[in-house]
Design a protein that fits this description.
With about 400 residues, the protein is α+β, with helices and mostly antiparallel strands. Helix content is about 55%, strand content about 10%. A 4-stranded antiparallel sheet has the order 2-3-1-4.
Length: about 400
């Protein structure tokens, strides 16, 4: 907007050239054009044109002072090659530590520093080599003092006055900036309570429960019904719309990281009435729910709210590995008992599952043959006796 239109057009070529050059370098490095690399390009998009604009501005100024086109293009590049190189190296240095990230996450994010580095290096090459090479063909007329000033010219004059005033009163300017920085920190600490996914307005709460591992789905469903009745007695019925119990699974939706499937698990989805969520204190609701005494039929019972945003899992997760299953169970119980003593810690649970009882039956093949029974017949009758069979 502030450059002569011919210079602006030639300068604007820098962006597509840098993007195309970066994509070429990405292909050479073996990177795909996906959401990760595209995000990296967006991060450094502003830096891709900054250098070009500064050199184009200086070139225009030199041409208006009477310097010939070729010399003006060379001088503009020479004037800024050291600060441009330093700033580029500084930004690259800030991203390079991401390369040391290991594991699956490291394989994902390593393309961010690679793409940023490729983009900035090509931007530097474009601004110092390619841009001056084409700017020398742009004719810029010497500025005339007699022409009528446009809005942009007036805004330039106004900006110039502000800069002169700031430089003339440098200590006042410095103190003003320090005061602004300090006030920013103070307002952030004292008044800013921004949360990306605030707890206010929570519309769903969930109760997850488990019975003994060998429990039938019918028994688990009856336990769910019992805890549902206790929840309805504890909460204000005028503010909650529904209590939906589901047995056989603990995953509320596809994004829920807590996936458990089995005849001994279930959950209750508690829905808040429309318009009531903003008036409910989330912490108080959870406190009321957690005050419910666990029924004897349940092994585990936990309550939580379903907040917005991506699934993040538990705030603290401890993984125990051992070839000794008994050692894992003992150590996990030790950690759980220790954590339960900590103030503010709740919903402490282990995913170690105690195996159900096993009855091993050996068929006497000689006797079974005399009775006309096969192993399949014995297994079928056992399954019918233990689990039932649809007639």
């Amino acid at each position: 907007m502030f450059l002569p239109y011919k210079v602006a057009i030639f300068s604007s070529f820098s962006l597509p050239l840098c993007v195309l050059g970066t994509v070429f370098l990405m292909v050479y490095q073996g990177a795909n054009f996906n959401i990760i690399t595209m995000m990296a390009l967006i991060i450094c998009l502003g830096n891709l044109v900054d250098n070009s604009v500064v050199i184009s501005e200086h070139y225009t100024r030199l041409r208006e002072q009477g310097v010939n086109a070729q010399d003006a293009a060379v001088q503009a590049a020479l004037q800024f090659w050291i600060p441009f190189t330093a700033s580029t190296v500084t930004i690259i240095a800030a991203f390079l530590p991401m390369l040391v990230t290991t594991g699956v996450m490291g394989q994902f994010i390593k393309w961010i520093p690679i793409t940023v580095t490729a983009a900035l290096l090509f931007s530097l090459f474009e601004a110092l080599i390619l841009l001056p090479a084409r700017l020398q063909f742009v004719d810029v007329q010497k500025a005339s003092l007699s022409h009528k000033k446009s809005f942009l010219d007036k805004s330039e004059d106004f900006f110039e006055k502000i800069i002169f005033l700031a430089v003339k009163n440098k200590w006042k300017t410095f103190l003003l900036l320090v005061a602004l920085v300090i006030s920013g920190f103070v307002s952030t600490v004292l008044f800013n309570r921004f949360e990306l996914f605030p707890a206010d307005g929570i519309e769903y709460y969930v109760a997850r429960y488990e019975t003994k591992i060998q429990s039938s789905i019918r028994k688990t469903d009856l336990a769910g019904q019992e805890i549902s009745e206790l929840i309805q007695k504890k909460l204000d019925a005028t503010k909650f719309e529904s209590f939906v119990t589901r047995t056989g699974i603990q995953q509320v939706d596809v994004s829920d990281p807590q996936l458990k499937v089995g005849e001994n698990v279930g959950f209750i989805l508690i829905s808040v009435k429309p318009g009531q969520a903003q008036f409910l204190d989330v912490n108080q609701v959870l406190k009321d729910l957690r005050s419910i005494e666990k029924p004897a039929a349940l092994e585990k019972l936990s309550f939580e709210n379903l907040a917005g945003g991506p699934p993040v899992g538990k705030p603290v997760t401890i993984r125990i590995r051992s070839l000794n299953e008994k050692q894992i169970i003992e150590f996990s119980e030790l950690i759980i008992n220790e954590l339960k003593l900590k103030k503010g810690v709740f919903n402490v649970e282990s995913d170690v599952q105690t195996p159900s009882e096993e009855i091993a039956i050996r068929v006497n093949e000689k006797m079974a043959a005399q009775a006309g029974l096969t192993t399949e017949d014995v297994g079928f009758n056992m399954r019918s006796a233990l689990q039932g069979f649809t007639a």
